[in-house]
User: Fold L,D-transpeptidase catalytic domain from Novosphingobium mathurense.
Amino acid sequence: MRRSVPRFAPLLLLLAAGASAQDGQALPEIDFVRVDKSDRTIQLFSEGRLVRVIERIQMGDPVGPKRFEGDRRTPEGLYEIDWANPESAYYLSLHISYPSEEDRAFAAARGRSAGGMIMIHGQPNGLAQGRMPGDWTDGCIAVSNDEIEYLWQTVPDGTRIEIQA
Assistant:
């Protein structure tokens, strides 16, 4: 399922996102996503073949797995992209199915909440251009607005995502 880019997207970004399809090259449907926190990359696979690498991803605290609500860490483990939000506070967002049953059990055993609402998203909507500096999220994975548009168009709901240290 391909998502269309919302109407509110700047015309320039719409043109850039559609360039591949207009050149006769269909965008691949991504069926597996691997996030490497230490390398700060997202690897995108289609039918077992690496088709694109997104570099310089931004997170909250990149060291260690997310354990509790408010720890600002990005989860580690196997999840899925389960829904998309075109109207988030950031330019487009794809929800990661964190917390898993194991994540919930770990937090509950310590009398805490595992948290949730972990997304891959673009930059804040109020940012005129460019990127926020450094690691600034509360555990989400942030990419450039152009990169989230690519993900938005190629990563369907139900896609497996592995987040590794």
